[in-house]
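hey
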């Protein structure tokens, strides 16, 4: 058992290294992932910010959690794209002919998604600091925020794996992310849900993005998180378990 675990870890390391080399040779993917959320942040802060009533003096502080989720939702589309291209080029068949653990091919892409999205998140936070973002959170709160974002990224990445393995075209491999990118706009990410109509408000308050945004916002401001953090973790864990299960089913069925 110990030997199997050692081989698995080594194989994952090899697959991660392969995927990361693709990222470092094409840094434009990370740039592309960060540019759109940053543009959204600039748009809302300097164009719409003055007209939006959030009950806070610093709209950047209110806005940032939703922007981070949009960045992650954008970033996972590249995971799906890279998986799709590996499938089309026969990379999976080649690696399956070698003495490696089969699931490590997927884990290489998943861990690469965690690393690349973490880079994007850090870049966006640095830009937010330039725009006036300030946080009273301590080290433990920052770790909690990082943990929620990592779990959210991991959950969505396994959704991306399903799309990458199932898609029939390049456009189909990345199009699944559009509804996910749109979700923060129907949540408390940009405006309080109290300002929405009853039907929209009911949806906004009971979808995963709102609880995740509220938990991160409370942690960054040093405020009590209440039940939002547990709801956020429950949503992320549920999406992760379901997505992982179906991703592995699709993988085994196809290969």
């Amino acid at each position: 058992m110990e030997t199997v675990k050692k081989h698995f870890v080594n194989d994952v390391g090899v697959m991660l290294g392969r995927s990361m080399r693709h990222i470092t040779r094409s840094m434009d993917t990370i740039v592309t992932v960060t540019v759109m959320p940053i543009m959204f942040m600039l748009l809302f802060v300097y164009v719409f910010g003055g007209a939006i009533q959030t009950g806070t003096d610093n709209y950047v502080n209110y806005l940032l959690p939703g922007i981070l989720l949009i960045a992650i939702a954008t970033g996972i589309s590249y995971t799906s794209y890279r998986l799709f291209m590996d499938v089309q080029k026969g990379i999976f068949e080649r690696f399956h002919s070698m003495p490696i653990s089969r699931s490590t091919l997927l884990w290489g892409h998943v861990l690469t998604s965690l690393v690349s999205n973490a880079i994007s998140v850090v870049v966006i936070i640095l830009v937010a600091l330039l725009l006036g973002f300030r946080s009273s959170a301590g080290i433990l709160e920052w770790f909690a925020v990082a943990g929620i974002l990592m779990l959210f990224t991991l959950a969505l990445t396994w959704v991306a794996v399903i799309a990458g393995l199932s898609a029939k075209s390049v456009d189909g491999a990345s199009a699944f992310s559009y509804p996910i990118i749109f979700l923060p706009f129907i949540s408390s990410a940009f405006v309080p849900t109290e300002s929405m109509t009853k039907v929209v408000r009911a949806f906004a308050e009971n979808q995963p993005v709102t609880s995740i945004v509220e938990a991160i916002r409370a942690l960054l401001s040093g405020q009590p998180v209440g039940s939002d953090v547990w709801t956020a973790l429950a949503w992320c864990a549920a999406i992760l378990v379901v997505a992982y299960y179906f991703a592995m089913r699709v993988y085994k069925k196809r290969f």
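The chain has one domain: 2-254. The chain has a mean pLDDT of 86.
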